[in-house]
Every structure is written in C-alpha cells, then in structure tokens.
Amino acid sequence: MLSISVAALIWLVSLRTLTTALDPTLEGTWRDWKATHSKEYVQEEEESFRRAVWEENLQMIQDHNKQADLGKYTYWLGMNHFGDLTNEELDKRLHCLLSDVDNVTKVNGIMFKSSDDPNIPDHVDWRIKGGVTEVKDQGECGSWSFSATGALEGMHFKKTGKLVSLSEQNLIDCSTERQNSGCFAGFMHLAFETVRKQGGINSEKSYPYDGEYRGSCRYDPEQSITRCKSFGKIMENDEKGLQEAVAKIGPISVKIDARSIKFHFYKSGIFREPNNGAKQTNHDMLIVGYNNSSEGKGYWILKNSWSTLWGEKGYMRLAKGSNQCKVTEYAVFPVPDPKKGK
C-alpha cells in the first residue's frame, strides 16, 4: 500500500465525495474484493478513499465491457488487485518513465534486421516450446529485471534445452551502471551487459527476490547458470524484424507505453488503443510469441510481471501491425556465449 499522510487523505476523501457517493449496493462486492486480495486499511478515511477509487475503477471496467460486448473494442477489462489505486499511483508504483532510448543501445550491440526469409512461421509461442518460466510478480519494485531474466531464460533454454528461473534480484542489485537504478529504472541491454561482465547470472533459487534494492551485489560465480557475450537490438519500428527475431531467436525484451488505465485492468482479448503519438515508454515486458491471424487481427503474446491475477493469467495479446503501446521502440535480446557457460 502506498503511504499517504492523514491530511492529504482527508483532503482526497473530501474531494472525491464532492462528486461521488459510495454505493451501498456494492458493500458485499467490496468486502469480497478486500478478502480476495488481503486488503486492510488502518484508518476509516483511508478505506473511504480507497473504496471511492475502487468504485470508479469498477464503473469504468463495466462501461468498457458493455461497449466491448457490442463490438466497439476487441478486449475486455476486469477488476484485479490494483482496484483501489488511482492511475497516477499505479504509474508511480509500477513503472519507470524512460523516454530517451535512442542513444543508449548504439554501442556494443548487434543490430538485427529483417530478411526476406519465406520460412518465418505465422504462429510462434515459446510457452508451448517450453522456453518460458512461470508468471512472476514484481510487487512494488521496477519491472525491467523481469523482462531481462525472461529473455535470458529463453536464451538458456534454446542453448541447453533446460528451463531455469533466473534471479531478478541479482540484476537489481548488480546492474547499477549508467541508467540502471535498482527498482526505479533500467534498460534490459544493460542487464545483459552486467551478466557478460560478471560472468553469469544466478538462479532464482540461489538468489531469491526481495523486491527492493539492497545496495550490494551478492552474485556468486560458483552458482552461475548461464552467460551471454553481448546483446542484440531490433531496428526501431521494424515489426517484421521483431517477428523474425521472436521466431528465430526466442523471447524478446521490449519497453512499452503502459500508462493507460485500461492497460492496468486488461483482462482478455486483443488489446488495441489509439496511438497518442508520444514516444515515452514506461514498462517492460517479454514477447514470447505472436499470431498472424487474418482480417487484421494478428497479435503479439506478451508476458507481464504483475502476477497471474492480471490479464490472461499474466499474459496479454497486443495487436500487431500498428506499433501498439510503442512495442517496437526498444526491443533487445541477449546473445549467448558459445564458448563458456552451462
């Protein structure tokens, strides 16, 4: 739960109650939601505020789904564990706003360009192939490390045939160079560079997730699982290249624009939002596959790190072909070390 002062809480409660009153018919639903997600509020004012936020989010979800049922949207929303948070709080809690990705990957990386290979399949799902670990939950810590470990897990699987859950905490604690900053911000290619420099990465089991930056790196080279020699980058706005990379290389790390409140409450279907023209990205996910359906209904399969309570058991189908959520602005992958490692 985000901390909030008593004075600010009272002011927020008063402000919301000027425009909305709590619906008594939702009392049972509210109690059930609190019990499901183990929500407790110390102050009555805090619960009143959170209840008002929850009701507003619930109304938004219901209104959207009614229109989706009529065909206006291709996706549906659902109440989840974020229900008592405002969109502004979610942006601060879950995301790191990073807009300058143009210059950070120009050194050391290998550029992946699309080809005219006619054998690129129309459907790829690395979950079915066995190269994707279970959906994880980042909690209140920044998410870039989950996308990075997902790509490294896929790389290791493709190289060895073994699927091992790798340590996000290892990257949070040890990848603090340049623009990587613990739980607050980070680039996945810098995480891959950290793995290269330190000679590997530990498993989730040997270096468990704490959900906060501890200030010291506890990487154990004796417990290293896999190594990479560099990183690769897909050209910006090249969805064809991104598709080919997913097919030939494996799961790909991407940064996306996830500031929409509807993104936070996505439940099912193919997510598609109007392109707002902004270039900012603020959340990190892992592309684990795609489907080139007919009639313009193709989609990417993205793995998130908000637990299985979000989306389609932790996954999202994102519309292909129009750079939805800026999915092609920053897409990177680790390059395995052929000479070293397990």
Automatic annotation (TrEMBL):
**Where do the Cathepsin propeptide inhibitor domain residues begin and end?**
30-90
Q: Where is the signal peptide?
A: 1-21
Q: Where is the Peptidase C1A papain C-terminal domain?
A: 120-335
Top-rank lineage group of the source organism = Eukaryota
- Pfam families per the record? Inhibitor_I29, Peptidase_C1
Q: Which UniProt keywords apply?
A: Signal
Residues annotated as transmembrane: none
User: Do you know which InterPro entries this protein is assigned to?
Assistant: Papain-like_cys_pep_sf, Pept_asp_AS, Peptidase_C1A, Peptidase_C1A_C, Peptidase_C1A_papain-like, Prot_inhib_I29
Family recorded in the similarity comment: Belongs to the peptidase C1 family.
* Protein's UniProt name: Procathepsin L-like
Q: What is the lineage of its organism?
A: Eukaryota, Metazoa, Chordata, Craniata, Vertebrata
